[in-house]
Amino acid sequence: MNVLAIETTCDETAAAVITRERHVLASAVASQEEVHERFQGVVPELAARAHLERIVPILRKVVTESGIQPTRDLAAIAVATEPGLPGSLLVGLAAAKALCVAWDKPLVAINHVQAHIYACQLGRAESIFPCVGFVVSGGHTNLYHCHAANRWKYLGGTIDDAVGEAFDKVAVMIGLPYPGGLHLSRLAAEGDATAFALPRPLLKDRSTLNMSFSGLKTAVRYKLTGTGKQDFRALELSEELRSNLAASFQQAAVDCVVGKAELALKQTGLRRLCVGGGVAANDLLRQDLATMTERLGVELLIAPKDLCTDNAVMGAIAWEKIDQQDYSPLDIDIHPGLLRGE
Ligand code: ATP
Ligand code: MG
Ligand code: FE
């Protein structure tokens, strides 16, 4: 049997067909970078409209490519209903409900943040649970004690910007295209991470698993413009300064993420760390997490690079619910905000 998973929480329209054994029969992602690029950020209204255009072609594509016959071969339709942009979530949920009615299938509601961490389960036979789950993405930077697929406890997270958001905003300051995380990390590879002294907010505070990235972002801005109000967009920056600033910022952000992951492992006593979300594709982060977990003798699972940013394959988490017959009624609503814990 198979599940058809739908993902429209932000600005990627994605669908996938995944077998009970977690094999991917088909997967497609339509990104909207060209829609939002000139605004240097996702415009919610435009995102919702772009989902409307793309959702049916994407669904057709994965159903055709998978070779399944939906009424016969699908166990359920799964869709991310939280957290995300309201207009974007509504498009995916409405499509999922329509298919449930048309094909007489049960509906499975997925939490997108949990799905990001579940990407670590793909291609692995043994369960990833229990573990410390860490989602580092464009909208979230959250630590969880994951007891089981259906039991998550929020441990701490950013109190302001998500780490991916900080990457994207710093990328804009140094003149990189949107979304800037990947571009910034490429530029950083040519720079000196010790060139600029940047703050690592809350890193040394062992009493909290909360993090903060907005002060770091502002500190980068001050390196560019001083504390005055000068517009950084008017600055002529040398290649050396840009790459050094990118490298220094990246190291500071990664230090904060790795430091809190280590503290979460120590506080919970858990022996496995699972990391997902767009920023988990960052090479320096992957490297520094490996060094830290090796030192602690803890198992490290990071989502495969192609499953870090938004996709529907991580919707395989739906199988954990299908196995429990944990279905949702067809009148369920979206939950744009994050439900943090139990
Ligand atoms: P959320 O999952 O919290 O709702 P989102 O879905 O928008 O947010 P993702 O698609 O998981 O976020 O990740 C996108 C983020 O990942 C962007 O901020 C992007 O800049 C960042 N990112 C992608 N690749 C890299 C990289 N190599 N290094 C750093 N950041 C990266
Ligand atoms: Mg995106
Ligand atoms: Fe995401």
UniProtKB/TrEMBL annotation:
Question: Can you tell me which residues bind substrate?
Answer: 135-139, 168, 181, 282
Q: Name one Pfam family in it.
A: TsaD
Q: Which family does it belong to?
A: Belongs to the KAE1 / TsaD family.
What would be the name of the gene that encodes this protein?
tsaD
The record's subcellular locations are: Cytoplasm
Any one GO MF annotation of this record: iron ion binding
Q: What is this protein called?
A: tRNA N6-adenosine threonylcarbamoyltransferase
Origin species: Aureliella helgolandensis
Among PROSITE patterns, the record links this protein to: GLYCOPROTEASE
Keyword hit for Transferase: yes
Q: Does the keyword tRNA processing apply?
A: yes
For binding Fe cation, which residues are annotated in this chain's numbering?
112, 116, 310
Entries under SUPFAM superfamilies matching the protein: Actin-like ATPase domain
Cellular component, GO annotation: cytoplasm
